[in-house]
Amino acid sequence: MKLESLVSSSATETSEPDREPVDPSACAPVVKAAANEAVIDSDPVGTVLSTRSATISYSGVPAVRDVDLDIERGAITAIIGPSGCGKSTLLRSFNRMNDFIGGATASGQILFEGHDVNAHDLDPVELRRRIGMVFQRPNPFPKTIYENVAWGPRMAGYTGDMAELVERSLSDAALWDEVKDKLKNPGHSLSGGQQQRLCIARALAMSPEVLLMDEPCSALDPIATGRIEELIESLKPRYTVVIVTHNMQQASRLSDITVFMYQGELIEVGPTKRIFTNPERQQTEDYVTGRFG
Amino acid sequence: MSDQTNTASTGLFTADSAKRHRRDRFFRRLARCATWFGVIMLAVLIGGILRDGAGSLSFAFLDSFPSRKPAIAGFKAAIWGSVWAVSLTAVLSMPVGIGAAVYLEEYAKKGRLLGLLDLLIANLAGVPSILYGMLGLIAFVRVFGMDELSFMGLSLPFGRSVIAGALTLTLLILPVIIISTREALRAVPSSLRQAAYGLGATQWQCVRHHVLPAAIPGMLTGVVLALSRALGETAPLIMIGALTYVAFIPETPYDPFTAMPIQIFNWASRPQAEFHHLAASGCIVLLVVLLGMNGVAVWLRNRAESRMP
């Protein structure tokens, strides 16, 4: 991949005064080097991810059809829609996790910082470091809590203070106080909600620019869900979050922008408040008012 | 439960309850008989071997070379020949088998070619072992009839040596190792791989740090079971010309050898009854080693299961 080009165009750390002091990635030498490059995209709000007539098919059967979407930097975007509407497929196409599904093909364009993620010279490994992902079911590694967070950065050649990075990531994921005395315990010894926060901490440790969340609360009870939602909200100024959810209350509570999908197509995008109170499309209204889905 | 209450409460459901239960009992007994058949046959086999062979089983038997005189004949050369052959087989088959399985399961692109390979490997696992013996004879013992050649400690062709036997056994158990290793890899939850890839790990990092550690107990179980099969194989070793009378222990991989099942076969085919007792003693030793290896496999599996999160 053209790593330099991908990094330089996105080196927004230096250009965003409100982001820099809090952005943990500023400490990572990997990113620091990038920050020295010429800054092309200095728009603090701009678009971080976008799709242009994106169609994603499994063995020729389209799951996502002709989607045009812009994901705004620093905002929380919720993708809602009934089961099987393609929202997870769309989410997974941003960091090319569909590569691991046999028969999955994409056409059209999916752009991250203006680069086509499906371009043959783009390295999906580096793409996934910069676009983190949290899955439906908590899936910590069968390792210690500390190792769960430290493994990713170590694999990416992190040369900073690992203990400090682990603490910061766990703090950012609102888990540090609960686990600081038992970092050597296995990740699986935690409760479901704690495990999911550990998975978020693990993703944050990679200093991603975008965090993709695929129904992160669907396996959790309401209290654990509430804590994850608070956590997601606390990430807002620093990270761009795209969250797929079945739970419309969650979408309306959390997100700034809501995307409604139905049968593989993007039906409506807009500020969350408007989507839930004054949708333009009949299908959206039917869905958000609970008439189907 | 009386038939009256049944007919009263079932209405349209007219099946004869007593008859259904009779049939149920019948098939339960049939299945139980099938199980006991196997158990009794095994007991008869082991009992027969113990009766014939326990008498001549002694430390001297384990520590003597074969002889024309049954009283002083022993199993030493066969035991050490088998140890040599199976150890070399383990060393040769594990990297190749596990490597191939990792490639097929983790890297290879799913498609028609992979499906064809699956089919071929599954069929190879069922090929009669004598065919592997013929292959070994041509490919390793004679190396396609090549002239003698020696360089850097390697001498070709291998001749009727331990290394030729081990290579043949390796080919024989490779499909079994590949299949069982792939099953162990497949049992690793995909959520673990997704977690690693989602963090921006390369495939090798993911396989090395997460998939292989999680699959190792299952893989070892398969390898041990495959090796215990190699230990009991006779036909391919006879085919490649393992000797039936060996009065020494192999010292290098190029030495000729014999193996436990071959020695047993040799003794059993002699007319004297004393040799038949020796054959039974050899069977006991072979069975003990096999049970030991299978025990290790079970232990590995149990340990893996108790460690699963």
Helix content of chain A: 25-40%
- Radius of gyration of chain A (CA) equals 19 Å
* Largest interface (C-beta under 8 Å): A-B, 29 and 21 residues
Main CATH class of chain B: Mainly Alpha
- Give the SSE order of chain A as H and E letters: HHEEEHEEHEHHHHEHEHEEHH
The major β-sheet of chain A equals:
6 strands, mixed
Structural category of chain A? alpha/beta
Give the overall pLDDT of chain B as a whole number.
86
* Rounded average pLDDT of chain A: 84
The total strand number of chain B stands at: 2
Please identify which CATH superfamily of chain A we are dealing with: P-loop containing nucleotide triphosphate hydrolases
Fraction of residues in helix of chain B = over 70%
Number of helices of chain B: 12
Query: What's the Cα radius of gyration of chain B?
Result: 26 Å
Uncertain spans of chain B = none
Task: For the largest sheet of chain B, list the strands in their spatial order.
Answer: 1-2
Largest sheet report of chain B: 2 strands, antiparallel
Gross CATH architecture of chain A:
3-Layer(aba) Sandwich
**Number of folding domains of chain A?**
1
CATH superfamily of chain B: MetI-like
